[in-house]
Batch of 2 targets.
Target 1
Amino acid sequence: MPEVKLGLQDVVIANSEICSIDGERGILTYRGYDIKDLAEHSNFEEVVYLLWYGRLPRRTELQELTEQLAENRPISPDIIELLKRLPPPQHPMETLRTAVSALSLYDPEAEDMSLDANRRKAMRLTGQMGTIVAAFGRIRDGKEPVAPDPSLNFASNFLYMLSGEVPRPEIAHWFDVALILHADHSFNASTFAARVTASTMSDMHSAITSAIGTLKGPLHGGANEQVMKMLLEIHDPERVSDHLRGLLKRKTKVMGFGHRVYHTEDPRAFVLRKMSEELGRQTGQTKWFEMSLQIEQLMIEEKKINANVDFYSASAYYVMGIPIDLFPLVFAVSRISGWTAHVLEQYAANKLIRPLAEYIGPTNQKYVPIEQR
Ligand SMILES: CC(C)(COP(=O)(O)OP(=O)(O)OC[C@H]1O[C@@H](n2cnc3c(N)ncnc32)[C@H](O)[C@@H]1OP(=O)(O)O)[C@@H](O)C(=O)NCCC(=O)NCCS
């Protein structure tokens, strides 16, 4: 009998030149560049270029990509209308999934599978994702969407479209770092979903819609929202220990901890911890970081399980003023760059992704007519 690898754990299914993870040493690279180095020195637009084209851009190339991304931020008024008309979702990821799927109906190249057309679609989707999220965030609060400002960089513009105010440079800087950290993560569940869809030679919008549906789950992109709900529920730093021990006693998974690939600290959590601390200090809301630190220490002591990318991003986004239920959508605003890079890579050397299952159901059944059952 062939060995069954539940959850495809440890199964290597393709070669990829985009992203590497060393789960033993806690090292994540995009195209060979260490994520900590990129977080310190790069910016989101440059990382998008790196993911798509495989190398760091020259100055003019970066300028061109930055301008193109900014030019592609506006969305059709019909999509805004759709966002206004759709019923309130049970979770905002439903609306994002629907709106991104609808974008293809307004994209004249939706069915064009040439490399150039797919690159342009990657550009449009990356430019538009933040506009949809920000517009939704405002519409559901009864406010008019704010048009993108092409003079602002990707990070500042998103926060501006969401709140209506240009963010302070320190906040915009840290949000830019968060975007860099979330841009790609190899064959994670949502990227894999995008690649499975792309491997049927289905179009880019379909692949990204699959990815959004997959990111939505609390075991993936939905975890950061759950982390913040937990922090709000605990509320008082004095209650952290009792609350956490209660969760562990009931064998409830603590959101923001554990990882399929990392057996040591997630390098993104290392940077996000610093971000959460600094933003907490700058906004005068240090409590959430302090509680997070306590939880992390207890999880390491009690379970030897490290924080993942979703743990400290929760308190960081919260003090930036991002609504909690939009956290997973903000993940998508960044991860669209990695998803599209992977879809392009899949198209470039496609092989239909189609695994097997070991059948363990009944055999040799004889059909029984309905009146005899
Ligand atoms: C990310 C995750 C899905 C990885 O799952 P996985 O590789 O299938 O590993 P498992 O869920 O089987 O966990 C292995 C063991 O660690 C424990 N564990 C893993 N994550 C845990 C967590 N967050 N809290 C408590 N225990 C956890 C499991 O209970 C299991 O213990 P057991 O072997 O005694 O049953 C899992 O760690 C998780 O659910 N984390 C919380 C959600 C989250 O933060 N997701 C974002 C990921 S970036």
Target 2
Amino acid sequence: MGYEQDLIAKAQSRSAVMGVIGLGYVGLPLAVELAEAGYRVLGFDVTARVVEGINAGRSHVQDVPTERLGKLVKAGKISATTDLSRLREPDCIAICVPTPLSKTRDPDVSYISAATDSVAKTIRPGQVVILQSTTYPGTTREMLLPALERGGLKVGKDFFLAFSPERVDPGNPRFNTRNTPKIVGGVTPACTKVVTALYGPAIETLVGVSSPEAAELVKLLENTFRAVNIGLVNEMAIVCDKLGVDVWEVIEAANTKPFGFMKFTPGPGVGGHCIPLDPHYLAWKMRSLNYRTRFIELAGEINSEMPEYWVEKVVSALNDRGKAARGSTVLVLGVAYKKDIDDLRESPALDIIRLLERLGAKVQYHDPFIPELHEDGVALKSSPLTAETLRAADCVMIVTDHTTLDYAMVQRESRALVDTRHAVAGRPGAR
Ligand SMILES: NC(=O)c1ccc[n+]([C@@H]2O[C@H](COP(=O)([O-])OP(=O)(O)OC[C@H]3O[C@@H](n4cnc5c(N)ncnc54)[C@H](O)[C@@H]3O)[C@@H](O)[C@H]2O)c1
């Protein structure tokens, strides 16, 4: 029996051992789904704290309850290690390591490169490697393939390689790793077939595409689509503000059109590991081909200017009360990059706090998910949200609209309120 049939049989019997490199927001939920589907999962991470936590059955990822993980660890279905030489053990290895941007906003694929090197050192015939980290088109074929074939193994025959982008939306109560359709782009048709067979028991819908480049671009199209549409609706918010029209009324009314319109909402800018970063991967790749991706640049420009726009609203709200920003207390509500999650990465709240501090304002914040803030020069502790703290602030600013905040109290008790998310009823913006 060839490796292809062997792996498909191992998927059917769930006897394949599944490896996951990088046990963060993406890797841990995947490991849990694979284990619940019946596989034994071996997780790899370079961070000892992450590995120790998982082996003790403790989850550090909000979407994976400790109880759910604990059961799988206890049953021997999931274990984790920092020992990358054990990468020989799994039949299938999913790479879920970070892909940030460098200081100069260029792709930083050093984590993918390190993980690939680890796999290349131990690769054996019959293994499957799936890259899930978001990256520029060409990474799988240009970076992983030569490294994995270095020892003489042939892709599609001796081992299998695919790109399968991650679509997880942390905090989404409806869509998770299992019920979000997953794209698979193998280097050869056999690669797509084997990955589809292995992921089939854990993921409800798998969508094959003809190449890893197509799969890489699917992810970049999805996130560029969001970045551009958020940029458009943010510009529309500025337009409406200048015209004295309520942008939210316009959006809601437009959204009654049953076709040809998709609702996006304005806000303080974009955050998280994906929307502010991923389009730059594509822009960077295209620059190397002498093409400028204008939509990406423009959306990035507008979205990154939103913190300044909203800080100006605070300054103007304070001015209306005869106060200067310098010396005023501003209470920021919500600092996570989106509602109901504990992730601060690239959050526009950080820019807003820095801008306010630069103006001399005394900034406090409240976020039920983030008890302390230690980021690039910002060091604060979450204040309790009470009528007193609200009344004590010269201006309250809603940056992230967490569901559990008492917005009626916020509206009642704030002396001045700037609402970047339309979280309280009535007109948005300063009053
Ligand atoms: N977080 C999301 O919502 C999301 C959604 C879709 C796609 N993605 C993409 O998925 C990828 C992973 O993102 P994440 O949010 O899970 O990151 P994360 O930072 O939460 O987790 C990554 C983990 O990888 C580990 N790691 C780093 N280098 C390693 C190495 N060489 N070997 C083993 N472990 C290593 C880190 O210690 C960390 O625990 C990124 O490319 C990201 O763009 C993320």
